[in-house]
Q: What sequence folds into this?
């Protein structure tokens, strides 16, 4: 993809033009990101305190006992959103669902262990271990280019 920026002091409002031979998922994603007007914040609750979570510091998001939690570098937070709602707010280039009950931050993965038959073991930056469910193995392999 080529990116071109033109500076014109007479222009008062930025204008984006996308030239393409056909609509692709990549083009749709670019349009969605450019058109995004409301901030995609995620608020977590810990010890009766609400904190806006920085997506770069989130290791994983998971559902347990009917509640949704975020494991971040600075602790665990309970969220009021469901996992499918979080998927819409999270950056698609960083986060991927690995099971019906868990989403991980790819930038916080130490390594993937493919030696287990039929599943993938994921070790995160904090040393915690989780597993990709069989249903999501092919999706993870696609994301990893395997």
A:
């Amino acid at each position: 993809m080529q990116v071109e920026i033109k500076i014109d002091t007479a222009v008062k409002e930025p204008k984006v033009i996308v030239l393409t031979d056909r609509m692709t998922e990549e083009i749709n994603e670019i349009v969605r990101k450019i058109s995004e007007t409301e901030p995609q914040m995620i608020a977590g609750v810990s010890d009766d305190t609400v904190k806006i979570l920085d997506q770069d510091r989130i290791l994983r998001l998971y559902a347990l006992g009917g509640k949704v939690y975020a494991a971040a570098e600075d602790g665990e937070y309970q969220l009021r959103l469901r996992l499918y709602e979080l998927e819409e707010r999270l950056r698609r280039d960083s986060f991927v669902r690995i099971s019906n009950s868990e989403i991980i931050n790819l930038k916080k993965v130490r390594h993937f262990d493919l030696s287990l038959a039929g599943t993938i073991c994921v070790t995160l930056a904090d040393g915690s271990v989780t597993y990709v469910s069989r249903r999501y193995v092919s999706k993870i392999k696609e994301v990893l280019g395997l």
Remarks:
- The mean pLDDT is 87.
- The chain is about 20% helix and 35% strand.
